[in-house]
Amino acid sequence: MTDLHPIFAPAFKARPWWWEAAEPPDRDNSLPDRTAVAIVGGGYAGLSAALTLRRLGHEVTVIDAERIGWGASSRNGGMVSGGLKVASTGLEATYGAEEARRITAAAAASFPFIEETIAREGIDCDYVRCGRYAAAWSPGHYRAMAEKADWIAELTGLPTEMVPKSRQREFLGSDHYHGGMAAAATGSLHPGKYARGLAAAAEKAGARLVDGVRVTGVKQEGSGFRLATDKGELRADAVLVATNGYSKDPRGTALPWLARRLIPLNSYIIATEELPAETMDRLFPGRRMISDSKRVLNYFRPSPDGKRVLWGGRASFRAATAEQSAPTLHGYMTAAFPELAGTKITHAWTGYVAFTFDYLPHIGVQDGVHFAAGCQGSGVAMATWLGHNVALKLAGAANERFALDGLNFPTRPTYTGSPWFLPFVGGWYRLRDHIDRIAA
């Protein structure tokens, strides 16, 4: 397909553009016989937890079925949000006003924490606090944003601004949307470099990182645990599962209870060929991160070097390859930016994110095993923050209860972690987006 479809550049690659500068490296570390703490999952959450546990003096081994950082941590869009997705959920009806505020405040704290982590560890990952522009798909979506703008500003401690359609081109070089909200509590980074830097910080602190070990089961054994893997057994005093969107595996799952509560969803991204500086200046004034308010959302941004458009979204709710999904994303991109109709794609890729049935991130303990998961597709800051907090819990070092710890974590009857219903839900969401647009 890559040599037939006109949108593909001659040297097109079905792999993350981020890997051109920071592909996850291979490691030669072997699996030890035992460890004090075994962390299953070598993404942002697992690495952040390892770093915190080492700083608290605990021996840690991080294992991943692929390479450390191979999953969503080096495939995402590199948008660093301050828990705004949690703030948009209807929490008060379930938890009451006071607890809802604690939950949203805990989520918002992920933003300053990742900024502190990057600065403290000296991680070179092209981080910039650039702000976000949330583009309204319809006038009704714009009004809904306006109702929450002041509260989001209060929650994050950073300003928001409602931008009418007449001023939209000050923030986004497109007339495709009905205005939007500019929020300062967002940054941008290179996710591959961040994953590599976080891994390096954990290793420097003394954590052991092991690639290519697939955990097929975890059982309690005396006061500890025995992990069955495809490379032998590992005994540990404590276990943390931080596999998020990769928690369900037919070859064996570290914590089936967790897989039943997570909805793995493919997210797809394309990278364009390099564009003239004046084009990028016109499309992205201020170099902000952009997302729209559709239920089947798009998110897009300039690359850290300011030369390409990176466009992501839910191109398919069925299994699709990067090559198959790329034309759909290209169509979404050119609907917003018609001048890019002739622009070719150099890279396309996909990866799993994890949603929960209550739209909240969670940490906790089940059957003695700690877990952190459910970042709702906004995991750069949140996964880092969850990993830190679950590490404090595991070590008994938390000064107070973390508001995302121990919440009711729902599933659905008969659900095992394989979301057969996604094509139906996705079709319904697309229809509702279409109705909203027609009404506009």
From TrEMBL:
Name the UniProt record assigns to this protein: FAD-binding oxidoreductase
PANTHER family: FAD DEPENDENT OXIDOREDUCTASE DOMAIN-CONTAINING PROTEIN (PTHR13847:SF281), SARCOSINE DEHYDROGENASE-RELATED (PTHR13847)
Organism in which the protein naturally occurs: Falsiroseomonas oleicola
A Pfam family matched in the record: DAO
InterPro entries on file: FAD-dep_OxRdtase
Top-level taxon: Bacteria
Domain FAD dependent oxidoreductase: from-to ranges: 37-391
